[in-house]
Amino acid sequence: MSVALSNLFELRDVRNKRVSSYDRTGGNKDHIEVPAGETGIIADISGAGVIRHIWLTHASADPMIRRNAVIRMYWDGEEMPSVEAPLGDFFGQGWGEAYHMVSLPLAAAPLGGRALNCYFPMPFASRAKITLENQSEHPIKALYFYVDYEELLEPCTAPTRFHAWWNREITDPGKQGENEWGVLHPPAANPSDADNFVFLHAEGDGHVVGVNYYVDSPTPIWYGEGDDMWLIDDEPWPGSLHGTGTEDFFNSSWSPKEVYMHPYFGYPRVNNNIGWLGRTHCYRFFIEDPIRFHRSIRASIEHGHANGLALDICSVAYWYQTEPHKVFPPLAAKELRQNMPEIGVREIHRWRHAWRESMGGGKLWGNEQK
To answer: How far apart are CA 365 and CA 153, in angstroms?
Structure first.
């Protein structure tokens, strides 16, 4: 961890400060409550500083609170947030689930991944505000948090601010149908990024530092033939950075299906169903190799080769850039952020029944073709 350790010996002319949910009466009620439909203030800091660490945990009767609570961050008095994402997705947990996540900038720690941590540094010149909106029908009965920051004794000279944006799409395979590996017909070509799933479309001067990618596949075939594509500073396709497959972009290989967590990349959650049916979470952080842009960037990935699969994809992109930033599209309503129904053995058996009828019935095993 050379980046994290190399400057530990240096003296810094700052004051360490913390905003936390501790009990101001001296008691042990060290949390706040966020009623249903309301927004809680996690931090509202005046002056210049750098947030170095955020930790929080919560208690709610809503099993989807990680998707139904929305975290936002505002820098220097801006009206539109620079960070807007469902709580779990931001910290590295998809689908409203709780599970362990281990990386350098983000971690979901014991008990059972319920302790959410962020180490992305977040500079600000005059004000930093962090809120949590509870869009659930249930209260967040207990929200515990730390926001550890450095108060700068001189003006903040950092030119960029931290940003994060959540996106979701139920993808459409289009006229070619759900074709992968040439199962239905020869694979199509895709000389464009127009129909890709978009991680980020930003304008300004900055650099991308990471992506969390949550994919729910309704088919057991491999979801990850899609290439990542990066168009930087308004350049035409194929652009400066063009990948060779989803697992390649996430620094793995050969259609993996195992939990693995490195400080910069990994798979903290994989499906436990037939093939690649179900939910998989991949992440990659560009700590040593941030992707830089000076005017604009469009980062995207195919949903299957040539965008030939129907998938439920959610992502959170993390980046730094100068302000003002491009205004985010409106966050999808809570009802549109819920999980797609699980595909299981009953659905697969119905598919088999429909296939048998299409084949005329009779003595069939399952591998026959017309």
So the answer is: 75
Domains of the chain, residue spans: 10-152, 161-181+189-321
| Token couple for 41 | 């203030």
Q: Residue 318 to residues 124, 180, 210, 366: CA-CA distances in angstroms?
A: 17, 30, 5, 45
CATH number of 161-181+189-321: 2.60.120.1390
For residue 239, name the pLDDT band (cuts at 50, 70, 90).
Answer: very high
CATH superfamily of 10-152: Protein of unknown function DUF2961 (2.60.120.1390)
pTM, to two decimals = 0.96
Nearest to 247 by CA among 194, 207, 301, 289: 301
**Distance (Å, rounded) from C-alpha 357 to C-alpha 2?**
61
User: Residue 245 half-sphere exposure, CB side, CA atoms within 13 Å?
Assistant: 14
CB 86 within 8 A of CB 70: yes
CA dist 236 → 131, 203, 232, 245, 334 (Å): 38, 16, 9, 20, 35
Q: What is the mean pLDDT of residues 33-47?
A: 98
